[in-house]
Amino acid sequence: MSGESMNNLQQSMDANHSSFGMQNGLWGLTCSSKLSMSQSGNTFEQKLLFARGIDTIEPQNIEAILSSQFSDFDLGLRPVHFDPLMGSGIFTQDGEQWQHSRELLRPQFMSNRMENFEQVKSAVDALIDCVPEDGVVDLQPLFFRLTFETTLFLLFGKHLPSLKSEGITGRESEFADAFNRGQDYLAQRGRLGDFHWVIGGKDFRRVCKICHDFVDGAVQKALGRYDPSKSTDSTGSYTFVDAIIEKTRNPKVLRDQCLNILLAGRDTTACCLTWTLRLLVQHPEVLSKLRREIENSVGVGSEASDPVLSQVKKLPYLSIVIKEVLRLYPSVPVNSRAATKTTTLPTGGGPDGTAPILVRKGEAVGYCVYAMHRRKDLFGSDADYFRPERWENDALKDVGWGYLPFNRGPRVCLGQQFAELEAAYTVVRLLQKFETIEMTEDKPFNMPVGQEKQVLTLVVSSGDGCWVKMKKFDV
Ligand code: HEM
């Protein structure tokens, strides 16, 4: 992971009043001080050269762009920025094309197949086996490999070309490296807005080709084994790619949809897991409370049995821990849409910033979930702190559009259920297997929450990884 390293997103936003919408693309955070801005509470109008845009952390406005005025907005330049790597898939489409993809993919996410969960289990076991004897390990790259492997499984099942027998958990594959680099390029293109074409040289073309060749190989295999007379393939299993093949055999369409899901599913969950472990280690009282919950429900120690799906779903403290992690570190921290016609947003205009605000056709509206999730008027005076208990007894039930880790509205995340389950299961297994998880002496992370080094690509990951020392339970 490379990308833009910064002390933290919030500081960058405060310093610049942010500018996450000006690029008329996705996650286009700029760091310019030459912007002309008019500030109205939580919504800002910005001008850069001839472009005007709106940035907002106002739930009402975000609800408008994502739901109540859905047709007034689209993805802006995202499809153009992402095209060389991702082509046309659910993540880059608008209008009828997007609707078609959503209808195609939605049933796959709904059918919560046990086979997927079994695969998550074996990938987590492999992760645990990667922890060295002395227990000192950076968990962040391991989480990235875990979610890469599980998302690939979701897409292709066991039928992957060129993966070694031990799976990609054993080594970073050429494809994984290329996909990482490709995403860095996409993030840079997003930040450059109309000038995205500056990024797109030989190396970018090379990584796109590696990714395309790999996915094309898996698609060809799936096409080869497809039997139209059966609703499962001839080996009895049924994967995302099989489902899409029932609607189209066009290899480019299949490649694009698969890459789009891989993009959506991998880094988001890996970042969630990284921040979860960092926050737990930084807050031993939360870690102990969580450990007690797991001990009392599914047991801990070398003899503890692998939890079943229904047990993982019924861990109330774990569920608010993950909720709180995604409040402080929403995997997609910055996002944007562009107006398809001249329209208004409910608030942010007029002398006191409470009147509707104009958005002209083509202008971008950026929204920063990261900053919104730290608003003290929404989450309390201790909003900057990690305190899962704030979610207890439905205390935040009225926060509505103020809490948005998975988006809402027609384009709400399709993988939410899968991601929550994968993250919860991984945490349970780690706490079952390891008696202690703590900071290392060499690389402690004592910075106050939010002030640590962060890396912003399409997601926000940790700039210092997640170095911990873990001790297994005695056998
Ligand atoms: C903690 C983990 C995750 C988080 C925080 C997350 C968050 C999000 C967000 C914010 C969006 C909206 C993006 C936009 O419209 O601009 C999104 C969309 C999406 N996510 Fe997730 N996601 C996670 C995991 C996953 C996983 C594991 C998958 C699939 C394997 C997935 C599949 C999708 C898809 C297909 C969309 C596009 C939906 C559409 O445009 O209709 N996500 N996700």
TrEMBL record:
GO molecular function, one term: heme binding
Entry binding sites for heme: C413
Keyword Oxidoreductase: yes
Keyword Glycoprotein: no
Cofactor(s) needed: heme
InterPro entries assigned: Cyt_P450, Cyt_P450_CS, Cyt_P450_E_CYP52_ascomycetes, Cyt_P450_E_CYP52_fungi, Cyt_P450_E_grp-II, Cyt_P450_sf
Keywords: Heme, Iron, Metal-binding, Monooxygenase, Oxidoreductase
GO biological process, one term: mycotoxin biosynthetic process
Top-level taxonomic group: Eukaryota
Family in the record: Belongs to the cytochrome P450 family.
PANTHER family in the record: CYTOCHROME P450 MONOOXYGENASE APDE-RELATED, P450, PUTATIVE (EUROFUNG)-RELATED
Annotated protein name in UniProt: Cytochrome P450
